[in-house]
Input
Amino acid sequence: MALEMIEADEGHWETLLLQQFVLRTADLLHKHGIIPLGHLKTFLRMKDTMRFASINVLENWKILSCLSNQYWRCFTGFCYSTPFIEIVNEGNGKAVATQ
Output
């Protein structure tokens, strides 16, 4: 869904923003020791979650470029943690290998 929305440049952008908040929350929960790495990995293995996480880590500008000014400040300046990025990159490699 996310890729189709970005490619078509139409859809409910608030849905993508909510998903982005969820990913950031999961990253911050792990970063601050509230959940272990295994829980974060399990979350990212949920259906389509790794794919959307990859979009957020690698191509976040595509989503941000579609935002109106009212949302812009909420979503700029955030950096995912190194462990989160490594999990996403590892998941991307597995996804490419299985295709």
